[in-house]
């Protein structure tokens, strides 16, 4: 009984993992939170898990076709491929984060420059900040 339950559990885990990747990619695509190319990538990454759930001998067949004698080496190759995909995605995220930071800094600089130009155009010198309390000269007091 225990031997027969093992392939079923393995297939169930693979179906859950592959299906969740597919569902997550489609949901994020519909919510416009994931670009089409990344959604397609996640769908392509989820499909092998569904295929292996339905056809558990697929790893053995791939190992035979590619000339790898042990199934664990083939599984290691698949794992390395998935880690490389994750590394590539994290690289893309890091580059985009740097671009966003640079753009935010440029927008801040441009806004500050625009404030200075507006002040000069309105005739306000930099020491006369809008919104700052101005010192009003006191009226001379009458002497009695």
Task: Characterize the biggest β-sheet.
Answer: none
> What's the mean pLDDT score?
77
Which class of secondary structure composition applies to the elements?
A: mainly alpha
Tally of strands: 0
Element pattern in H and E: HHHH
Number of helices: 4
Low-confidence stretches: none
Instruction: Assign an overall shape.
Output: elongated
Number of domains: 2
**Helix proportion range:** over 70%
The fraction of residues in strands falls at: under 5%
Q: What separation lies between the terminal Cα atoms?
A: 114 Å
Cα-atom radius of gyration: 32 Å
Short description:
The protein is 76% helix and 0% strand. The chain contains four helices and no strands. Helix 1 (2-30) packs antiparallel against helix 2.
Q: If you had to describe this structure to a student in words, what would you say it looks like?
A:
By secondary structure, the protein is mainly α. The chain folds into two domains: about 55 residues; about 60 residues. The chain is built from four helices and no strands. The longest helix is centred in the C-terminal third of the chain and has 52 residues.
Structure keywords:
single chain, 144 residues
Fold blueprint:
Elements: H1 2-30, H2 36-54, H3 58-66, H4 71-122
Helix pairs in contact: 1-2, 3-4
């Amino acid at each position: 009984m225990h031997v027969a339950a093992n392939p079923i559990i393995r297939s169930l885990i693979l179906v859950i993992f592959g299906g969740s990747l597919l569902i997550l990619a489609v949901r994020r695509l519909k919510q416009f939170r994931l670009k089409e190319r990344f959604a397609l990538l996640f769908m392509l990454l989820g499909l092998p898990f569904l295929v292996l759930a339905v056809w558990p001998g697929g790893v053995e067949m791939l190992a035979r076709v590619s000339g790898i004698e042990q199934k664990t080496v083939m599984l290691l190759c698949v794992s390395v491929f998935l880690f490389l995909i994750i590394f590539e995605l994290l690289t893309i995220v890091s580059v985009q984060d740097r671009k966003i930071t640079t753009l935010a800094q440029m927008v801040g600089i441009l806004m500050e420059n625009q404030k200075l130009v507006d002040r000069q155009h309105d005739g306000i010198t930099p020491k006369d900040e809008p919104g700052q309390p101005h010192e009003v000269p006191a009226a001379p007091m009458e002497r009695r």
